[in-house]
Design goal:
The protein contains twelve helices and twelve strands. By secondary structure, it is α/β, with parallel strands linked by helices. The chain starts with a helix and ends in a 15-residue tail after the last strand.
């Protein structure tokens, strides 16, 4: 609970800076707001996956807004389509002598060795969303993915009345996907009337999810609900159902809080009865955290900075969806 309160405070501070007092808080080059005590200009890298679906597009937008608040920081921003390209981006940042890197890993396993190298060189690492396989990050900010998986599964079991046949679409291999799926499977495993017919990865991608769902529909004559855990994948699933003429009586539970899905929940769309929040704005908090740690003195600040910050996730239903609907959002 304390970590969540700290994260909420950090988020509120960032949003105020961006939308309330951002212009007033922008520092002039050379001031202490984003320089080390010795006056050295900070160099910070931001490494993220390519904006190939809604959530990552929202994450890139938030990263851009955060970097604008610190114009005197020397920023290096890179987005990568795959782990190989992200490793190259990180190696370039190391060669450029960055002081810190805020990173959202494309995948956990292949990025961990490079993250370990950066850690050994003393580069401040702020990891967001997808963790590494070794404890090399100085700060790790993530959504509560175990709660995400558990809440989504509990809702599905309750809506099905404890009886039904479901399929599961997993995401990109990462700590995020592992936590969500394992937590969901614990709930499904405790519900003997729920049959998990199939599991495959949709890579948090609409087209991939469409293909996976097409395969599921060929293999299984009856599917009552789809646990997709991602709103982009949910849209791919919906397309497959409609194209196969099997969209009646089947519903989908995605996740992420995409405005289009939240609107459909709000409108009592039977295909999307609920959703789970997972804000892409966490990347902005990671950027703010990296600047503040370096600016105010790494050794001193890290004594009071939690290494692991967890964001609460909420179940969105027709009753509360209005509070989660932001039509002007990029996601």
């Amino acid at each position: 609970m304390i970590l969540r309160q700290i994260f909420t405070l950090a988020t509120a501070t960032f949003v105020f800076a961006l939308f309330g007092g951002g212009c007033q808080n922008e520092a002039k080059p050379g001031t202490a707001s984003s320089a080390t005590p010795a006056g050295k200009k900070l160099k910070i890298g931001v490494s993220v996956p390519a904006a190939d679906h809604g959530w990552t597009a929202g994450m890139v937008w938030w990263a851009e807004q955060a970097m604008k608040l610190y114009p005197d920081v020397e920023w290096t921003f890179a987005s990568a389509e795959n782990p190989e390209n992200q490793v190259k981006d990180l190696e370039t940042m190391m060669a450029a002598g960055v002081d810190a890197v805020v990173i959202l890993a494309t995948e956990s396993a292949p990025i961990t060795p490079t993250a370990e190298q950066m850690h050994e060189r003393g580069i401040l690492l702020v990891s967001v969303d997808r963790g590494f396989l070794k404890p090399v990050a100085d700060v790790f900010i993530e959504g509560d993915n175990k709660s995400f998986g558990r809440k989504a599964a509990q809702y599905m079991v309750e809506k099905l009345g404890g009886q039904g046949k479901i399929v599961i679409l997993e995401g990109i291999p990462s700590t995020v996907n592992t936590d969500r799926v394992e937590s969901a499977m614990e709930v499904f495993g405790a519900s003997p009337g729920i049959q998990v017919l199939d599991r495959q990865t949709g890579m948090w991608n609409k087209e991939k999810a469409l293909n996976v769902m097409q395969t599921f529909l060929l293999k299984h004559k009856q599917i009552d609900a789809v646990w997709a855990a991602d709103d982009d994948m949910a849209l791919g699933v919906e397309q497959a159902l409609k194209e196969a003429g099997r969209d009646r009586g089947v519903w989908i539970l995605g996740g992420g809080g995409m405005k289009d899905i939240v609107k459909r929940v709000m409108d009592n769309d039977s295909m999307f009865p609920a959703d789970i929040t997972y804000p892409p704005s966490m990347i902005a908090v990671g950027i703010q955290k990296a600047v503040s740690i370096l600016r105010d003195g790494r050794e001193r600040v890290m004594q009071f900075t939690p290494k692991h910050m967890i964001i609460d996730v909420d179940l969105i239903t027709p009753e509360n969806a209005k509070g989660y609907y932001f039509p002007e959002s990029v996601f």
